[in-house]
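User: Hi! I have a protein structure encoded as tokens and I'd like to know what sequence might fold into it. I'm fairly new to this, so please keep things simple.
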């Protein structure tokens, strides 16, 4: 079957925030990103201020509105700081829009092109779950710092380094592994069908409430991926339980569906998490008993178990290999968006063996917030 929506990569993720200047400072100092481009009043942008942050192949765009009636301001008023746009790099933004909308997607930005001295940038966008947009970006004829209307900026993160090829290495975060969305009860299969029908994605894994449950709460999840397997969108919905699940807590405070967390891949999770922790990033912790007989449970691994225990890094194994992962606490006051740091050694899974320990840790946080 022809791939009617070829995707090169995740181009960037745009977060709508209340104060982009301060948010950019946080991501630079805490996560090791470098500021590489900027658009705002100084560049004759009278509507918004936007900061482009990069590390490895990860690109975040932090945007804030300059007036209360701007759509970004309304988004932040309702949802708090959160992901507004998932941008995918494609070879043909107009074709991506045509193919997805004719299969049922709702278009929000028709094929558009902008030009400056660096070339021609083409893009379009469709609606996804909640107020989240999926943007298609074609950079084949553009070589500017980010997009027309942006100027280059060169502020590195907290003592982070750059590689010889010019990519900012930061704390060793390399690329976006997956982006997880939370949707309301009963809506997961509808969005699975959306990604399958309109974007040609296939289902990689399905977890039900028996796989992801604790004594108090449960959730269900299906993982959708593009034809290359590089772009993965897990979709969660709450399941019935004795108490409120983490998914329902998110929906309550985000006021609807949206991106729950972004998983950032690294080649050295011990080094990355050490630097993140030392820079002020707060991580969820599991009981130290998790590490008793760890290698008996997951087999031989390359990393020292005592270092994993000291940092709180989790380990899981499947038929293809093993992975290491750890999750931050929410990065804003609302218990909504957070990040995962992940290192894969063959495994294409999502840490099924860690679900119980992880969600019990999340429930302890919920209890402290009075939301369990």
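Assistant: Happy to help. Inverse folding works backwards from shape to sequence: for each of the 372 positions I chose a residue that suits the local structure. Here it is:
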């Amino acid at each position: 079957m022809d791939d009617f929506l070829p995707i090169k990569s995740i181009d960037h993720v745009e977060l709508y925030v209340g104060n982009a200047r301060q948010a950019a400072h946080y991501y630079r100092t805490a996560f090791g990103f470098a500021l590489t481009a900027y658009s705002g009043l100084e560049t004759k942008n009278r509507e918004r201020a936007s900061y482009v942050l990069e590390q490895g192949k990860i690109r975040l765009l932090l945007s804030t509105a300059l007036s209360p009636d701007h759509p970004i301001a309304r988004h932040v008023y309702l949802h708090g700081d959160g992901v507004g746009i998932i941008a995918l790099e494609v070879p043909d933004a107009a074709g991506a829009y045509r193919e997805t909308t004719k299969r049922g997607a709702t278009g929000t930005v028709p094929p558009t092109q902008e030009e400056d001295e660096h070339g021609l940038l083409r893009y379009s966008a469709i609606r996804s779950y909640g107020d989240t947009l999926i943007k298609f970006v074609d950079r084949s004829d553009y070589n500017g710092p980010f997009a027309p209307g942006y100027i280059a900026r060169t502020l590195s993160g907290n003592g982070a380094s750059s590689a010889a090829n010019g990519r900012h290495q930061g704390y060793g975060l390399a690329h976006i592994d997956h982006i997880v969305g939370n949707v309301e009860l009963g809506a997961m299969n509808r969005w699975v069908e959306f990604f399958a029908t309109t974007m040609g994605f296939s289902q990689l894994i399905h977890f039900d409430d028996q796989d992801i449950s604790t004594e108090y709460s449960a959730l269900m999840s299906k993982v959708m991926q593009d034809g290359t397997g590089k772009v993965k969108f897990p979709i969660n919905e709450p399941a019935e339980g004795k108490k409120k699940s983490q998914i329902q807590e998110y929906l309550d405070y985000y006021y609807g569906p949206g991106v729950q967390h972004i998983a950032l891949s690294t080649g050295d999770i011990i080094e990355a998490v050490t630097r993140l922790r030392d820079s002020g990033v707060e991580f969820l912790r599991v009981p130290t008993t998790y590490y008793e007989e760890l290698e008996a449970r997951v087999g031989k691994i390359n990393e020292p178990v005592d270092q994993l225990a000291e940092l709180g890094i989790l380990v899981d194994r499947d038929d293809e290999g093993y992975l290491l992962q750890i999750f931050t606490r929410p990065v804003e006051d609302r218990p909504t968006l957070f990040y995962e740091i992940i290192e894969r050694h063959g495994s294409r899974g999502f840490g099924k063996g860690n679900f119980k320990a992880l969600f019990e840790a999340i429930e302890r946080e919920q209890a402290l917030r009075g939301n369990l």
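A useful reference point when you look it over: The longest helix spans residues 355-369. Feel free to ask if any position seems puzzling.
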